[in-house]
From TrEMBL, chain B:
Keyword Transport: yes
UniProt xrefs under Pfam families: ABC_tran (PF00005)
PROSITE patterns hit by this protein: ABC_TRANSPORTER_2
Protein name, UniProt field: ABC transporter ATP-binding protein
Domain called ABC transporter: residue spans: 26-269
Keyword Nucleotide-binding found: yes
Disordered: region residues: 1-22
Alphabetized UniProt keyword annotations: ATP-binding, Nucleotide-binding, Transport
Domain of life: Bacteria
């Protein structure tokens, strides 16, 4: 009896930190250990993530969706492939998918990098010189509202089947959110801060480097959270319009659809979704480290 | 509108180079400022004259819209007068800012949220480094030794908070940081724009005392804008009373209470005498016929 109680205590002691770490607001009830539980100790307690209250809702949704999918696949075999087929093609040729995913990832990250450098420089120019803003902003807005899918084929014609059109499309799609957010961030320094530094005649460069750029960082990260997943969209769209290209998940999808290989299409889509989520998770993690001072992390999480 | 000159006999001695202009720290002559035009024109300042001797603690008090903040912002080179002129140790406000002669404490602490307290007070020393040369050339400006900022922070009770971010501090601690940031520059002129107005009564009185202690050591010229009569009387050598529409100076009252002025002094009849005097002046200005909408 005594030992059973001890193991219980040890078990609760180890689960407590896990509870605190995992409390992102999805299951507040899981964090509260009721007195009734303590009075009647069960032999084993599960870590928070393994408790049904945490994993059950999503599992139920996934199972329901899976069942609906299977039902759809049986009634409309030309629209949806059976899940087993998708799993089979993924497991049967993982190297193929990894290689193509790597190509697409490289394109999207490189395109994003180009957009980041170009739009950051332009954002600084816009923020420092009002004339540049008037000259450039209308074009940037028009470029932003022009459907990307319409630009892609033209770029493929112009630049061929190499990486160039993919990088350009990705860069264009990522360009605008960064430009707008960063230029707003550079210009939203509180007036009193600027007044103080004006009374000691800090130069524009000093203001930019010490005050405006750090002030724009939260805005930049907000843009990056939009733009990282978008970069994959850009790369895939460009790949689809360059069917002569040999690699990339967009090419894979485009080829598979002309051959009616539904499982391959959905396997690629699955990987793309996974990639997008991973990139988003990465940006969020970096943001938490870099912007530890910013109040979105101390305030809103509660 | 006669010229109002604060007496310069009791101010702490400042190093003079023998130049005539060095007997005044701040000289404002016929300064006017109008916002807007036509029917909507608001005369923020109407031909204001004010001369402040070096080392004096001068408060500017008045109701909203009397132009007291405009006056301060003109000295700080954040606004230019439409007419008249402003001089700081014989130089233009622009030149005074170039030489970092001015320490400005805004109404809100205006700290940089990504820098800790120590970094917030050291950053001003890392910008506009050319100021040191200009300052030594500027008329009558005393040579500046590099102040010990950590010591200054310690003096105002921020030793333990030195490596904290502004968001982790109380409002009073943030404003103390802003004061150290300005005083750390060892300015010839310290300009404070209602710096304690957002604080609670206790914090406010504690900060007044700390400010007086710091001022005792640094002995700089202070212009302190406030709307609190008690605060003005406690802190100042001279209180400048202003009235609105148009913004103008209606009186200049010298407060010859002994220093140091502890919290005990606030209860004395002498203190109340000055408070009542300034309240009377403010109310007289409020009722004056120059006010068009007097009810």
């Amino acid at each position: 009896m005594m030992t059973a109680l001890d193991t219980f205590r040890r078990a609760t002691a180890t689960t407590t930190p896990a509870t605190a770490l995992a409390s992102d607001g999805t299951a507040p009830t899981a964090a509260i250990a009721s007195p009734a539980d303590a009075a009647t100790p069960r032999p084993r307690r599960l870590p928070t993530v393994l408790r049904p209250s945490r994993w059950l809702p999503l599992t139920v949704t996934l199972v329901a969706l899976g069942l609906l999918w299977q039902l759809g696949a049986e009634t409309m075999p030309y629209l949806l492939p059976p899940l087993a087929d998708i799993g089979e093609t993924l497991a049967g040729n993982p190297g193929f998918y990894l290689a193509n995913a790597w190509v697409t990832l490289q394109e999207s990250l490189l395109g994003l990098a180009i957009a980041f450098v170009a739009s950051s420089i332009l954002a600084i120019a816009i923020s420092e010189v009002p004339m540049v803003k008037r000259a450039v902003m209308p074009i940037a807005v028009v470029l932003n509202v022009t459907p990307l899918v319409a630009i892609a084929p033209a770029l493929v014609v112009a630049f061929g089947f190499g990486p160039e059109p993919k990088l350009i499309v990705t860069a264009i799609i990522c360009f605008f959110p960064i430009l707008i957010n960063v230029s707003v961030g550079l210009r939203s320094v509180p007036a009193a801060v600027l007044q103080f530094y004006r009374t000691i005649k800090a130069s524009r460069l000093e203001l930019l480097w010490n005050i405006r750029i750090p002030n724009a960082l939260p805005y930049l990260f907000a843009a990056l959270k939009i733009v990282f997943p978008l970069s994959i969209v850009g790369a895939v769209v460009a790949e689809m319009f360059a069917p002569g290209a040999s690699e990339g998940l967009g090419t894979t999808i485009s080829l598979a659809s002309s051959n009616n290989k539904l499982p391959v299409i959905y396997a690629s889509i699955f990987i793309l979704a996974l990639m997008g989520s991973a990139l988003l998770g990465l940006v969020t993690a970096v943001e938490r480290r870099v912007l530890h001072w910013h109040d979105t992390h101390s305030g809103e999480q509660k | 509108m006669g010229s109002k000159t604060t007496s310069s006999t009791t101010g702490p001695a400042t190093p003079a180079t023998g130049d005539e202009t060095t007997t005044t720290a701040i000289r404002i002559a016929g300064a006017s400022k109008v916002y807007g035009s036509g029917q909507n024109a608001l005369v923020a300042l109407d031909g204001v004259d004010l001369t402040i001797a070096p080392g004096r603690f001068v408060s500017v008090i008045g109701p909203s819209g009397c132009g007291k903040s405009t006056l301060l912002r003109m000295i700080a080179n954040l606004e230019r007068p439409d007419a008249g002129e402003v001089e700081i140790f014989g130089a233009s406000p622009d030149a005074a800012c170039e030489a970092k002669l001015i320490g400005f404490v805004p109404q809100s602490p205006a700290l940089l949220p990504w820098l800790n307290v120590l970094q917030n007070v050291t950053l001003p020393h890392r910008v506009n480094r050319a100021a040191e040369r200009k300052r030594s050339r500027a008329a009558s400006a005393s040579p500046r030794s590099v102040p010990d900022l950590e010591q200054l922070l310690d003096d105002v009770g921020l030793k333990d908070a030195m490596h904290k971010l502004p968001a982790e501090l109380s409002g009073g601690m943030q404003q103390r940081t802003a004061i150290v940031r300005a005083l750390g520059l060892q300015p010839e002129v310290l300009l404070m724009d209602e710096p304690f107005s957002a604080l609670d009564e206790f914090t406010r009185e504690a900060l007044q005392e700390q400010l007086l202690d710091l001022w005792d050591e640094i002995a700089t010229t202070v212009v302190f804008v406030t709307h609190s009569v008690t605060e003005a009387v406690r802190l100042s050598d001279t209180v400048v009373v202003m009235a609105p529409r148009p913004g103008r100076i209606v009186d200049v009252v010298d407060i010859d209470l002994p220093r140091p002025r502890s919290a005990e002094l606030l209860k004395t009849p002498e203190f109340h005498h000055f408070e009542d005097l300034i309240r009377d002046r403010l109310q007289a200005a409020w009722r004056s016929p120059e006010l068009p909408n007097a009810a």
